[in-house]
Design goal:
Strand content: under 5%
Number of strands: 0
Number of domains: 1
Distance between the termini: 24 Å
Shape: elongated
Largest sheet: none
Helix content: 55-70%
Order of helices and strands: HHHH
Structural class: mainly alpha
Number of helices: 4
Radius of gyration: 17 Å
Length: about 90
């Protein structure tokens, strides 16, 4: 079965636990927001039960969300916000 968000080439993996760590990173935000279809969510949860690295990554993401959720929207000066947005837009994606 090929996951629709997978960029992996070659034959599809046959078991949900074969989802890769890289694929988890690609969809973890959808998982946290609860918008993954049931089958994909179950595959992610199965992987998380087997992978300490991805479990740590998810924990760090949730902590980041919790901490930044406490920062007021106007906490950054507008010049710094613009600079950060430009920096993120210029990042090279793999």
């Amino acid at each position: 079965m090929r996951w629709p968000w997978s960029r992996r080439s070659g034959p599809p993996k046959s078991q949900p636990e074969d989802i890769s760590c890289r694929e988890i990173v690609q969809i973890v935000n959808d998982y946290v927001e609860g918008v993954l279809p049931v089958g994909e969510r179950e595959a992610v949860e199965l992987h998380l039960n087997l992978c300490d690295g991805c479990t740590d990554y998810l924990r760090q993401l949730r902590l980041s969300i919790a901490l930044t959720g406490e920062v007021p929207a106007d906490a950054l000066p507008s010049e710094l916000e613009e600079e950060l947005c430009l920096a993120f837009r210029s990042l090279q994606r793999p």
